[in-house]
Amino acid sequence: MRLPFKIAFRYFFSKKSTAAINVLNWITVSAIAVGTAALIIVLSVFNGFETLVISLYHSFNSDLQVQPIHGKTFLVNEVQWKKISELKGVRAVSKCVEENALLRFHNQQFIATIQGVDEHFSEVSDVSKNIYKGNFHIATDTIFNKTKNENVVQYNLVAGAGVAQSLGISADLMNEPMQIFIPNRKTENISVDLFDAFRSLQVFSAGTFAIQQDFDTKYCFMDFYLLKDLLQYNNEISLLNISLKSSSDEDFVKNNLKSILGKDVEIKNRYEQNSFIYRIMKIEKWIVFSILTFILIIASFNMIGSLSMVAIDKKRDISVLQTLGANATMIKQIFLLEGLIAASIGTLLGLFFGTLICAGQKYFHWLKLGGNSFVIDDYPVDLQALDFVRVIIVMMLIGIATSWFPAQRAAQQTWDLKSR
């Protein structure tokens, strides 16, 4: 392949008899470079948004979450709890009870999902690190009431930003109580007394968290034991949130949890807890990759015309090579390699400029998202080595495919050395 490569390399860079052929060659290279750069930039932006969304979801979710397969709750006895707490690879375990409830504040009402979490919750989730108003304080307080001249018990709740907004809870109204209504599990006949169908509790907003819209408009947090009593649970729990010492311990811990808790529960990691959103992001990325690849294929069709014109321009050279013993395979290799040289140069230029633009966006934040409703101000980018490998493979395949026809045609032609 050394001789065909040398000839192809010389054909690509040498002057042609017609200047238009040189221009067409570099137009082809430029089209490939622009398409490759666009592919890298778009994929990197998708990676940036994916990384951002994953980090937001990871701020809410724990490393592992144990859920009941059937029903709302499952049981964990003392022996099982001790085994889980002492399991190698487990850093912390937090119990949780969960229920939908009606919240009422002044004249506003909103249905939210309330999670009762214990004192270990901050060790398995980063919700407490995403408080933008107040504090993540769910413990019960005892406050001296000057009007009644006695100590009064105050129950606290931390709401998502969307929940607080729907209820109209602003910073200056956080010291006013709201009412929680939860279905009474022991009511048999709702039609007899509607008020007996619900259990209510007066709570105060201690803080507001803001992570991601899916969480901010749905969840509130309060004390585990308080909500457990309100729901009239005994030893039932809704979720077990577990943090790991290392991600490498995940499979080991999951297998041991299954043997400890049995078949009535399912154990999900961070990605499995939000599998739908991650799957959608992957599908979107592949769709965009396919569309841009199709555009690159169309742009690379210039190579067919370019190589065909080079073959016509170099017909005397081909005739000389055939006279010297070059067979059809060698002629085909020359033009295939010339097409690959054009594709390689365009790909390398595209990768270079695409990387340069992405690096500039990452460090200098050139392109802004606009508006004030986003978590970040500018487009995120994340360059990944696997994307570069994919783009290089795709471009080489496109180069071979578009070079094949003119190379095959050039190899099948018999040129007369005496003709001009």
What distinguishing features does this structure have?
420 residues, 2 domains, six-stranded mixed β-barrel, 14 helices
Question: Would you give an account of this structure?
Answer:
There is one protein chain. The chain is an alpha+beta fold and about 425 residues long. The chain folds into two domains: about 1-55 and about 280-410, no CATH class; about 65-270, no CATH class. The protein is built from 14 helices and 13 strands. The strands form two sheets. The chain has a six-stranded mixed barrel. A hairpin with a 4-residue loop joins strand 6 (about 140-145) and strand 7. Helix 1 (about 1-15) crosses helix 13, helix 2 packs antiparallel against helix 11 and helix 11 (about 300-315) packs across helix 14 (about 385-410). The longest helix has about 40 residues, at about 20-60. The chain is elongated. The two termini are about 30 Å apart. The model has no long low-confidence stretch (mean pLDDT about 85).
Strand order of the biggest β-sheet: 3-4-10-7-9-8
Cα-to-Cα separation, first versus last residue: 29 Å
**Low-confidence runs (pLDDT<50, min 5 residues)?**
none
Structural class determined from secondary elements: alpha+beta
Rg estimate, integer Å = 33 Å
The figure for the number of domains is 2
**Major sheet:** 6 strands, mixed, barrel
Summarize model confidence as the mean pLDDT: 87
Helix content range? 40-55%
- The tally of strands reads 13
Q: What string gives the helices and strands in order?
A: HHEEHEEHEEEHEEHEHEEHEHHHHHH
Oligomer: single chain
Query: What's the total helix number?
Result: 14
Shape summary: elongated
Proportion of beta-strand residues: 15-25%
